[in-house]
Amino acid sequence: MSIFVDENTRVVYQGLTGSQGRYYGLLNRDYGTQVVAGTNPRKAGTDVDGVPIFATVADAAAATGATVSCVFIPAPGVPGAVLEAAEAGMELVVVITEGVPAHDEAFLFNKLRRDHPDVRLLGPNCPGVISPGKCNIGITAGHIAEPGGPVGIVSRSGTLTYQALYELKQQQIGVTTCVGIGGDPVPGTTFVDCLAAFEADPETRAVMMIGEIGGSAEEEAADFIAEHMTKPVVAYVAGVTAPPGKKMGHAGAIVSGGKGTAAAKMEALTSAGARVGQNPTEAGELMVEIVASL
Amino acid sequence: MDLFEHQGKELFARYGLPVPTGEVAYSPDDAVAAAQRLGVPVVVKAQVHTGGRGKAGGVKLAADLDAVRSHAAGILGLDISGHIVRRLWIEQASDIAEEYYASFTLDRSARKHLGMLSAEGGVDIETVAARDPDAIARIHIDPVDGLTQPACRQWVQAARIPGAVADVVADVLVTLYGAYVDADADLVEVNPLIVTSGGDVVLLDSKVTLDANSTFRHDDYAQYEATQTRDEREQAAHSKRLQYVGLDGSVGVIANGAGLAMSTVDVVNQVGGSPANFLDIGGGANAEVMAGALEVINNDPAVRAILINIFGGITRGEEIAAGIIEATRRVDIDSPIVIRLDGTNAAEGRELLEPHLGGALMMEPTMLDAARRAVELAGAAGGQVQP
Questions:
Q1: Are residue B58 and residue B79 in the same domain, yes or no?
Q2: Are residue B275 and residue B150 in the same domain, yes or no?
Q3: Which residues of chain B does A185 touch, with a Cβ-Cβ cutoff of 8 Å?
Q4: Is the separation of the CB atoms in A13 and A21 below 8 Å?
Q5: Is residue B102 domain-shared with residue B179, that is, in the same domain?
Q6: What is the rounded distance in angstroms from the CA atom of residue A66 to the CA atom of residue A94?
Q7: Counting C-beta atoms within 10 Å of the first and last residue's C-beta, which end of chain A has fewer, N or C?
Q8: pLDDT of the residue at B386
Q9: Would the CA dihedral through A134, A138, A143, A144 be positive or negative?
Q10: What proportion of chain A, given as a percentage, has pLDDT over 70?
């Protein structure tokens, strides 16, 4: 099994007619994802390399049975696009777009929780989600992930996720699902959401979690691990030596007022029983050890 | 984006919030002219993107024009926590009866906005929090509802704001919250929010940080962009649209992706070196972006070795290798370069790089090996006597 998406997932791409949407949407289709529709109110009735374009997500869902949306709309249009997808009954909305203002993210999170509590938002500013061999939504390079199990991955960082996927593949260790939650201040889906889903997924038997400085998502994950996880967790946190008050590339990666340091996060995760690697390679090695002992 | 105090106050004024009248000055002459127009007494205030101005002697009351001139001359050029004062704000002096504290920011773990209010303003809020945590009233605001009048009134009461000014303070806070949201601020902080002896509520100071991601709906934010404090390296990187943070070591770091770049900086430290910077060139690694990154790093005189750490995802190894080769052709590099290339088609990429290796360009198989090599080279080069 896998979490959030699998071989039966039917996906509509909001922004499939744009350059990024087209490029990654078609790459996702080549991977095997059921890319069933795109939307663009001005191009309804046309197609992108055979994928039909509809005016709205609701039209696309009615015609194709799509239940998941992937958003490649530029930042100003993201709140509208997400609410449109939620109103059309999408179960999961994956927002790849970066540069969405934090106020919009905070608004969206609370609006969805209130009016559409069953809709899961992943992102914004995330690489997407991949259940290797089944479904790849977003910008992850699918071929560097080994299908199967027993490892589930959740990460705030794109390239570090690729690194983890790649290192596991070198050891022929399979991955059930890899979720990129993104590096923004208010992500729609958190570490805790993913840890809970992996804990409930019978095929996932160990979890790798890749965090970074800023906020308290890793500390919240540590609390969850201590109280609810029976499966082993390997963690890595980037930014140990990041200077305070500086945004390290991601909008959410900032140590402010002495809070959100990598050291505090690693300490919390270690105390919760997770194995914490000092660098990505060490985290990979720890996971290899754990998988060998399962 | 951090705003100067006066920029924050000018922004507040656009929302109808009460701020003292003042003018910007860049010289003692400017300051005197401004004070003449405003009428003495005035306060001469250093405009820097850091706190602790008062303690550093960056805020002075001037009773007459001679005092304005001497204070302005004394404050301009002052070093406040590494920030050199280049502009002043000359402001009509206020008659302070009470000092409060107010701020709005995003509470990431609650995923709601957080308002903080205290009747004990004018001092560092951390100090207040340490001495008497109950002196600060907190309110979580759902972004969908905003800050309602009834909720605000309760909050003001909880903060022990005297009843005589409670309604006025509540109105100011509702407007301030509106400004915080409308301006896409990461933070607005007013310390102190004062009551004058005449009973007027005035925002006497401002600390405002705006979300750089929101510029698409704020055409006027280019003015703030232009006044950000950056060192020369950061400015050069910024103009090339590179994600760069200056550090003070000798190993220049280039990586693709924020997480990998942070991790690379960590690993350089772990193997005993010190990174000169954090630099994320983003998803792809074409020749132009790579050349721009190398230029920025190469212009940093502290750099003794360069570590390029690339993990190919969608972008293939051979494209990345071609980008690096082309970039090293375009930019004359002074320091040795150590490359770690992994991921999609890494073997093809390494093959392309092979004929260019030797001399100043070298390759290592892993991130740790590459970091060790770069640190070693930085140490060796650092020991050389420059001609």
A1: yes
A2: no
A3: 106, 108
A4: yes
A5: yes
A6: 13
A7: C
A8: 36
A9: negative
A10: 100
Q: Are residues B221 and B244 in the same domain?
A: no
Domain at A10-122, CATH class:
alpha beta
Give the one of A101, A141, A240 whose C-beta lies nearest to B211's C-beta. A101
Interface with chain A: mutation pick from B241, B266, B367, highest number of A CBs within 10 Å: B266
Q: How many residues does chain B have?
A: 387
**Could you say which of B214, B245, B312 has the minimum Cβ distance to residue A248?**
B245
Q: How far apart are CA A246 and CA A128, in angstroms?
A: 26
C-alpha distances in Å from residue B275, one per residue of A240, A284, B306: 13, 24, 9
Instruction: Indicate the Cα dihedral angle B40, B46, B50, B55, nearest 10°.
Output: -70
DSSP per-residue letters across B192-236: EEEEETTS-EEE---EEEE-GGGGGG-GGGHHHHTT----HHHHH
User: Residue B133, preceding bond cis, omega within 30 degrees?
Assistant: no
0.90 surpassed by pTM:
yes
- Separation of alpha carbons A31 and A33, rounded Å: 6
Would you place residue B383 in the very low, low, confident or very high pLDDT band (cuts 50, 70, 90)? very low
Rounded to an integer, what distance in angstroms lies between the CA atom of residue A13 and that of residue B168? 50
Q: A101 CB near a chain B CB, below 8 Å?
A: yes
Is residue B65 in some structural domain?
yes
Q: Which of B302, B364, B355 is nearest to B328 (CA)?
A: B355
pLDDT, tens only, A162-207: 888 888 988 899 999 999 999 999 999 999 999 999 999 999 999 9
Which residue is closest to B242 within chain A, CA to CA?
A249
Residue B344 touches partner A, C-beta closer than 8 Å: yes
Q: Which of residues 210-229 of A touch B (CB under 8 A)?
A: 210, 212-217, 220
Q: Are residues B271 and B363 in the same domain?
A: yes
* B216 in contact with A, Cβ within 8 Å: yes
CATH topology of domain A141-293: Rossmann fold (3.40.50)
User: How close A63 gets to chain B, by Cα (Å)?
Assistant: 31
The answer to whether the Cβ–Cβ distance between A102 and B211 falls below 8 Å is: yes
* Domain boundaries, position B47: 21-92
Query: What mean pLDDT is predicted for residues B299-323?
Result: 89
